Amino acid sequence: MKPARIAAAITAVYFILSAAYILASDYVALRVAENARELEHIQSLKGLGYVVIASAGLFLFSWLLLRRLREKVDELQEGREKMLLTDRRLLAGTLSASIAHDMNNLLGAVRANLEFIEDQAQLDPKTVEALEDTIELVDGFRPLNDRLGQAYQGERDEAPVSTDPGVLVRQATHMIASHSRVRGHHVSLDLEDVGPILVSPGLLQNAVINLVLNAADASPSGTTIRVRLRSDDAGVRLSVEDQGPGIPADERDQILEPFHTTKPGGTGLGLFTVAYCARAHGGRVEIHDGDHGGASFEMVLAAGGGGDVENTPGLSDLARRE
Question: What is the pTM of this model?
Answer without folding.
Answer: 0.54
